Amino acid sequence: MGRSIVGAAVVICLCLGVTHGNEVARYDNYRVYEAIPSSENQLKLLNDLKHSSDSLIFLESGNHVGAKFNIVVAPHKLADFTEALHNEGVYTRLLETNMQKSIDEEKHRMGTKRARGTFDFNDYYELEDIHAWLDKLALQYEQVELLEGGHSYENRSIKGVKVSYKSGNPGVFIEGGIHAREWISPATVAYVLNELLTSQDPKVRNVAENYDWYMFPSVNPDGYVYTHKKDRLWRKTRTPYSGGCFGADPNRNWDFHWAEQGTSNRCQADTYGGPYAFSEVETKSLSQFVESLKGKIQAYISFHSYSQLLLFPYGHTAEHTSNHDDLNEIAKATVASLAKRYGTKYKFGNIYEAIYPASGASVDWAYGALDVKIAYTYELRPGSNSWNGFVLPPRQIVPTGEETLDSLVTLLEESQRRGYYENL
């Protein structure tokens, strides 16, 4: 069998993509590989590397034999990486020889957009632009109320809005950008918000006016700023920890079966769950805000990317929720609705089985701790056949928003039809 799995993990456990001071992380000649395990041993190797190595960036991963893993590898670690996988017989395919190229192209587009000084849905925007736009909406529409869902370690606002056309509506909480590098997430939240205010489509007007919407485009503001200023592929918060390590995964940090599955106890890892549940001020303060709405919030939706999946609890166990059948049937109808406009195909299922074990996630907490029985995570475009899903071309923002809004309408209609909002 060659080198042991543990040995392989240790060999390539050196830092990559680290920035110091004013330096900006670059990915010149960083290669992207697809790896597909064909045995449980190979699967274990890849997942061990994911949770133990800070020298690799996993763009995509899975929890079953045959799942695709897309992995960014630094030039100086290429030999160790390829040898470790070769010794275990893992199938690999080179997808890209220079990760920096797509990041540079994206930065150039954003520079052009900055010169225009507008806010539209044809490009990605920095945090200050998103917050300024939310401020403008609150001034422009009487139905819009500014909210603060907490604050970040670096004292940035977790800014959101409430959209309400009348009292007594059931509440829908929408969270975006919890993983910093997933730029299509805040963009999609902003698109949906804009449509709730401006669309004349009868179905959109129905859900806009008969639900109260609590919408937060970027709930990891420090991380999001960091992806714009320092490291495009940063995922976590920016809380400093010992040993020169920064950040925890804010979607592994919620106080519901924290650190039981699919998380790392190593601060350097992308899936580091933090030293304890709610260690991150972002998750702690946002959870307190959501708790203040207990009984009001009837649906909790989290937007991520990428892989084109619609997921629901649980992530910490293969055990099914009490309303698993309803969640599954609602998801089936939702993804069918999403596919109608552009043919975009989503898969669906509970988190543990459909993607991989992951405990301490926000939707699991909303479901398990606050009893919000309609709780879903979208993994937005692109599909699993893309290697650079975090650097999604901005021309896909509007189509992503359109099909996602179509699906949200169906999600709410289907859950209402099953009686989830009758007693409000």
Task: Describe the structure in your own words.
This protein has 424 residues and is an alpha/beta fold. The protein is built from 13 helices and 14 strands. The strands form 3 sheets. Strands 5-6-8-7-11-14-12-13 form an 8-stranded mixed β-sheet, sandwiched between helices. Strand 12 (309-312), helix 10 (324-342) and strand 13 (347-350) form a beta-alpha-beta unit. Helix 1 runs parallel beside helix 2 (40-52), helix 6 (184-198) crosses helix 13 and helix 10 (324-342) packs antiparallel against helix 13. The protein is globular and about 60 Å long.
Number of strands: 14
Beta-strand residue fraction: 15-25%
SSE succession:
HEHEEHEHHEEEHHEHEEHEEHEHHEH
What is the residue-averaged pLDDT? 91
Assembly level: single chain
Strand order of the largest sheet: 5-6-8-7-11-14-12-13
Total count of helical runs of at least 4 residues:
13
Features:
13 helices, 14 strands, alpha/beta, disordered N terminus, 8-stranded mixed beta sheet, globular, 424 residues, 4-stranded antiparallel beta sheet
Explain briefly what this protein structure is.
This protein has helices at residues 5-11, 40-52, 78-87, 100-116, 127-140, 184-198, 202-210, 221-229, 281-291, 324-342, 351-354, 362-370, 397-417; strands at residues 31-36, 56-60, 69-73, 91-96, 144-151, 157-163, 171-176, 212-216, 240-241, 245-246, 297-307, 309-312, 347-350, 374-383. With 424 residues, the chain is α/β, with parallel strands linked by helices.
Detail the topology: elements first, then pairings.
Elements: H1 5-11, E1 31-36, H2 40-52, E2 56-60, E3 69-73, H3 78-87, E4 91-96, H4 100-116, H5 127-140, E5 144-151, E6 157-163, E7 171-176, H6 184-198, H7 202-210, E8 212-216, H8 221-229, E9 240-241, E10 245-246, H9 281-291, E11 297-307, E12 309-312, H10 324-342, E13 347-350, H11 351-354, H12 362-370, E14 374-383, H13 397-417
Helix pairs in contact: 1-2, 1-3, 6-13, 10-13
